[in-house]
Amino acid sequence: MKLIQTIKELRAELDTLRKEGKSVGLVPTMGALHAGHASLVKRAVAENDVVVVSDFVNPTQFNDQNDLLKYPRTLEADCKLLDSCGVTFVFAPSVEEIYPEPDTRQFSYAPLDTVMEGKFRPGHFNGVCQIVSKLFMIVEPDRAYFGEKDFQQLAIIREMVRKYPFNLQIVGCPIVREDDGLALSSRNARLSSEQSTQALQISKALFASVEYAKAHTLAETKAFVEKAIEEAEGLTIEYFEIVDGDTLQTVSEWNDSNYIVGCITVYCGEVRLIDNIKYKEHQS
Predict the structure, then answer these.
(1) Strand 260-268 vs strand 271-280: parallel, antiparallel, or unpaired?
(2) What is the CB-side half-sphere exposure of residue 55 using CA atoms within 13 A?
(3) DSSP structure string for 156-210
(4) Could you give the C-alpha distances from 190 to 63, 77, 212, 269, in angstroms and in order?
(5) Alpha helices by DSSP H, the chain
(6) Which among 58, 89, 100, 178 could bridge 182 via Cys, Cβ 3.0 to 4.6 Å?
(7) How many other CB atoms are found less than 10 A from the CB of residue 119?
(8) Cis peptide before 174 (omega within 30 of 0)
(9) Distance of alpha carbon 79 from its chain centroid, rounded?
(10) How far apart are CA 199 and CA 269, in angstroms?
């Protein structure tokens, strides 16, 4: 495994390997890696000859500068994990390398990016599209891997690839959870042991709601989850929406769509956590 910090060096390495007919997989990350990232990386390693993992905390997707400053940065530990997974290159550029000048590009994929996270974090998805599109142009991967925990982000990146001239496959990978059900997240590192226990109520409420939904209306199920979080100690719900998994628009009845997902954001203390659950699986 090789650590690379400049675009020029990475492109030179990849150009040589492509001339040998090697396929390239990309896993974009912001570092602070955990088993959830490792599952994406291992899949990329299994499906490609060469795997690039970016390790870059992207400033343009943070609408809260305090959140940016507190975001964990653990490059040395990340590299050890990635080396054990069989990664070819870790791309860990400086902010100046990625943004030698301000990125003024505007990405708009309404209504996908105007609801949920788009509503509560204005500018967030524009920043995500800025960095992901840059990485796609730098790496030119055959496949890029993203976790379904960031469900809305995955939908927006798929839409960006449809509208941009990117020739690659987007691979969505299932949520990885702790044994107790908590969705793995780099932000979990900021939780105290007490908060980690409190945060379990998020996934517990979601899992319970799947069974509850079998005998109740969509509105009743939404209220069930909201009540469970509101009554849980240490948690403050920002939103819980039950949406069509393709359009991300809210649905009001279970028969409104054959692909229905519940998306939630909860504050545990100052730490903002997201999760989601599928009520009706996509019929492919």
Answers:
(1) antiparallel
(2) 30
(3) HHHHHHHHTT---EEEEE---B-TTSPBP-GGGGGS-HHHHHHHHHHHHHHHHHH
(4) 19, 16, 32, 10
(5) 7-19, 35-47, 65-70, 75-85, 95-98, 117-120, 124-139, 151-163, 193-213, 218-231
(6) 178
(7) 12
(8) no
(9) 20
(10) 10
Single-letter amino acid code for the residue at 199: A
| Pairing of β 50-55 and β 24-29 | parallel
Known catalytic residues are 37
Q: Which pLDDT belongs to residue 278?
A: 98
- 61, 51, 57, 2: which is closest to 27 by C-alpha? 51
Pick from 44, 60, 225: which is nearest to 132 by CA?
A: 60
For residue 263, what are the CA distances in angstroms to 56, 89, 186, 238?
A: 26, 33, 18, 11
CB 177 within 8 A of CB 183: yes
For residue 66, is pLDDT > 70?
yes
Q: How far is CA 147 from CA 14, 231, 264, 277, in A?
A: 24, 29, 16, 13
- Contacts of residue 222, Cβ cutoff 8 Å, sequence gap at least 6: 240, 241, 242, 262
Distances (CA, A) of 260 to 99, 222, 280, 282: 38, 12, 5, 8
Distance (Å, whole) CA 65 – CA 103 = 17
| Predicted local confidence at residue 63, as pLDDT | 86
Neighbours of 28 (CB within 10 A): 24
Q: Over the stretch 174-220, which tens digit does the pLDDT of each residue have?
A: 999 999 999 999 999 999 999 999 999 999 999 999 999 999 999 99
Encoding tokens for residue 125?
């998805």
Torsion of CA 47, 166, 17, 127, to 10 degrees: -90
What local confidence, expressed as pLDDT, does residue 283 receive? 61
DSSP state of 232: S
47's CB contacts (< 8 A; 6+ apart) are 23, 25, 143, 171
DSSP state of 60: G
Reported as a pLDDT band with limits 50, 70 and 90, residue 7 is very high
